[in-house]
Every structure is written in structure tokens, then in C-alpha cells.
Design brief:
Length: about 450
């Protein structure tokens, strides 16, 4: 049964691969992605931010091709496809290890409700959860070979790597270990191993927090203050309304799978599993929605934070609900339905990201030949999310489509950059400035060394 269901995943990842090629511009010309590409092509190396070293797996193809001097379109396509290849490689390895249940958990994680995150695949949280599933599949494989000792050194390397993807991994990791621990005689990873994994992982998180502290991650934790500032209006927050609305439009598999899981555990009187599931699911959603309560947070970034919910649903669904559905001859049909609706949903979602590209093109048609720093209001960009990414988005689009690189920044306070009027031989970006001779001329086409920036403010 499991192997038959596992084979369905090949079609799912093929669909995602095709979509990653078709919409490679939407996926690579979006702030964080464009920002990462900027530094990869500038330095000819990995763009590692906030000590999140796990990105090397998904940046590998792009960096390799950059070092080989490949054309920009080839690098962009490889970067977009590289995320799907990374996920499929882990799925394939899980299958080769005959850990089909963990493979199906990974498949559901990528298909249950992922929509906007498909166009924001630079999320280290998404990559980290995939890597975590690979680690658990490997441990389960070793555990299944009773005469083989657990390779603790390799396990230590696995767990030490996880915090360098994303700190929020502590939630899906904690849930999976608790889920397996409660299974008693059905456990595929022994309780002794679960204890040791927990100790290794928590030690890695603590050491990472002490010796590799990131200002960005510290700032992100600031949302916890909302538990005080938003009290007692938690249930009327925009974020909760947003989530509930999306459960009927894009996240429809969340309520469906939740009902199936709750119904099964209620029927089988698995009270501990039921409490663990409900407490983790509601508690995590409560944490995210209160930490990011308003509409300022973009849809794709908010969905990125919801990703661990996919694990909270996928584990009980694969380990407990699917066997029940198989008895009713429904497991394969439902899995295919999840995969098909995932592809349709992701495709339909492209419109907003394609429109964003079209807005950038129209803006470039007016200002591409100028070096400008323009106010958000003058640019009519009030509805453009995360305008900090504009210099990187305009650079990559103009270089790719016009064969010349634009020097444009949209800023809420351009008057603070009056000094840029004197800058003639450097590219000004958010938080930095680079001399033209620091930039690889194959990917950065800047030739105007006589004109300074024009600053256009509201005043």
C-alpha cells in the first residue's frame, strides 16, 4: 500500500518541477530571492544570511553555473528548479531507504496547503523541514536494522545542522518526536533514540543561539510582545480572520484533514495523540497569528510561518488516517486529489506574482535609463510589498530583459539619501553601496560613470 502511494509523489514533484520552469521569473525576481541572487552573482559564492548555512543545498546549482560563467537566464532557471530538485531528492532517498511513511509526510507537507510559498521557496524553514524529514527517515532505517548500531556521530551532524536552517524548526521537530514517543509498540524510532535526538537537538539550538546569534532572528522574536499589547483581543485580529478565510479558499485541506484526524482519534480513543495534535496545532497558530497580527505581513511570508502546520497534519494523516482510508479503498484517490488540487492551486496563484513582474516592467519602461531613488508615493508603489527589495528586482529584470542594469530604489524616505547625488561610479542598494569594479560585468551591466543619482521625494 505504502509503496503504491509513494509512487504518486513522482507525478507531484514532476508537476512542481514544470511549474518551477514556467514561473521561474515569478520565483526568482521576488525580493528575498532577487536579494540572494544579487550576492551570489556578485561574489560568485553562496549567499548565506543570518547563519542559515542550510541554503547551500538549494543554491548549489546557481553558484556552480555562476562560477562556470553561464548566461543569466540559465542561472535563474536552475535556481528556481533547484528547490524542487532538492525536495525531490530527499523524497527519493526516503523511498530508497524504504521509509515510505516519511516520504509521504514530505509529500503532504509540500502539497496540503502550500500556495504562495511556492513563489517564495527561498524560505529556510521550508528547506529545513525537508532536511529534518530526511534525518528522521535515516534514523528509522538504521533502527529497522536491529543488528546495526546507531551511528551517533552522523546523527549528531544531522541534528547540529538543523538549527542553521531556521529556529522555528523546534516546533515540527518537537511534535514529531512527541508523536513517535506516544506510539508505544508502534514506534518506528525507539524511545531511547528519541531521548538522545532531543538532547542533541536542544543542545544544538542553545549553542547556535549563543555563538551564532542573529540580529534578524532576535528582531523577529519581538512579535512575542503582542501577547501583551494585543490582550485581550486575540480572536479579533486580522491574522485570525485571514487564516479562517484562507481555510475556505486556499488552505481547504487544513480543515478537511483536521476533521479526519480528530474523528479517527476520537473513534479509536487515542486521547493522548488527540490532545497532542489539537494542542500543538492550535497553540502554534495562536503563536504565529498573535506575533504577526496585521495586514503588513505579506501573504507569502505569513504562509511561510504556517509551514510547520503541514507537519502537524501530515504525521497523523500518514501514520494513522491513511491506513484507515486504505481499508475503505480511498487512500490512493484522496492522495491523488491532494496532489492535483495542489498543482491547480499553485498555478492559479501565479497571477499576483505575474502582475508584480508586469508592474516592475512598466516602471522600468519609464525609469530604466536613470539612476533614481524615488519615494513610494511618487512611484505609486504604496501597495507593493517589501519595497526594500526593489533595487534587486529591478537589477535582475532589466539585466535579463533589456541587457542593461537599472539603478533604481523605491524608498519611503528618499530625502535621507541626498548624498547619492554625488555617487557616479557605484551601485547604491539598500544598506550598502558597491563600486562598479566590484561587480561581475557578465551579470551587472553598468557603464554610466558620469551621472549621479536623482533623488525624487514627496517634498
Amino acid at each position: 500500500m505504502l509503496k503504491r502511494l509513494y509512487l504518486t509523489g513522482f507525478a507531484a514533484y514532476f508537476i512542481m518541477f514544470i511549474l518551477s520552469l514556467v514561473f521561474y521569473k515569478e520565483r526568482t525576481m521576488l525580493n528575498d530571492m532577487a536579494y540572494g541572487l544579487f550576492y551570489m552573482l556578485k561574489d560568485g559564492s553562496f549567499a548565506i544570511l543570518h547563519f542559515r548555512f542550510g541554503v547551500i543545498f538549494t543554491q548549489f546549482f546557481a553558484v556552480l553555473l555562476c562560477k562556470a560563467g553561464a548566461p543569466l537566464p540559465v542561472i535563474l532557471i536552475s535556481y528556481s528548479a533547484g528547490f524542487v530538485i532538492f525536495n525531490f531528492a530527499i523524497y527519493l532517498i526516503c523511498g530508497l531507504l524504504k521509509q515510505y511513511r516519511f516520504a509521504l509526510v514530505l509529500l503532504l507537507f509540500h502539497t496540503l496547503f502550500v500556495t504562495h510559498t511556492f513563489y517564495y521557496e527561498g524560505s529556510e524553514l521550508l528547506q529545513g523541514i525537508s532536511f529534518m524529514i530526511l534525518m528522521l527517515a535515516y534514523i528509522a532505517k538504521v533502527q529497522a536494522q536491529e543488528k546495526k548500531h546507531m551511528p551517533w556521530f552522523t546523527l549528531g551532524l544531522f541534528t547540529a545542522t538543523l538549527p542553521f536552517f531556521h529556529l522555528l524548526l523546534v516546533f515540527p521537530m518537537g511534535y514529531i518526536l512527541a508523536f513517535l514517543w506516544l506510539r508505544d509498540n508502534k514506534t518506528i524510532i525507539g524511545k531511547k533514540e528519541i531521548y538522545i535526538i532531543s538532547i542533541f537537538y536542544l543542545a544544538s539550538v542553545i549553542l547556535k543561539s549563543i555563538f551564532f546569534r542573529s540580529v534578524y532572528e532576535t528582531h523577529s522574536m519581538g512579535g512575542l510582545r503582542n501577547f501583551i499589547t494585543q490582550f485581550p483581543d486575540y480572536f479579533t485580529l486580522y491574522s485570525n480572520r485571514f487564516f479562517i478565510k484562507n481555510c475556505s479558499t486556499e488552505y481547504y485541506w487544513i480543515p478537511v484533514t483536521t476533521i479526519l484526524i480528530v474523528a479517527l482519534y476520537w473513534h479509536t480513543k487515542e486521547w493522548k495523540q488527540l490532545l497532542l495534535f489539537l494542542f500543538t496545532l492550535t497553540g502554534y497558530l495562536f503563536l504565529i497569528n498573535i506575533s504577526y497580527p496585521n495586514a503588513v505581513t505579506t501573504e507569502y511570508y505569513r504562509e511561510n510561518l504556517y509551514l510547520p502546520v503541514g507537519i502537524f497534519l501530515a504525521m497523523p494523516f500518514v501514520f494513522d488516517v491513511l491506513p484507515f482510508l486504505e481499508k475503505k479503498k480511498m487512500a490512493l484517490s484522496i492522495l491523488i486529489l491532494i496532489v492535483v488540487t495542489s498543482g491547480i492551486r499553485i498555478y492559479c496563484c501565479h497571477t499576483g506574482y505575474t502582475n508584480h513582474l508586469d508592474w516592475n516592467r512598466r516602471f522600468l519602461n519609464i525609469y530604466a535609463d536613470q539612476k533614481i531613488i524615488i519615494s513610494t508615493k511618487k512611484a505609486h508603489a504604496e501597495n507593493i510589498p517589501m519595497i526594500w527589495g526593489t533595487p534587486y528586482e529591478f537589477w535582475i529584470m532589466s539585466t535579463l530583459e533589456q541587457n542593461k542594469s537599472a539603478s533604481i530604489i523605491i524608498d519611503d524616505h528618499p530625502e535621507y539619501r541626498e548624498w547619492a547625488r554625488r555617487v557616479k561610479k557605484s551601485l547604491v542598494v539598500n544598506w550598502n553601496m558597491f563600486s562598479y569594479d566590484q561587480l561581475n560585468p557578465q551579470y551587472f551591466h553598468y557603464s554610466d560613470t558620469t551621472t549621479g543619482y536623482t533623488v525624487i521625494s514627496d517634498k
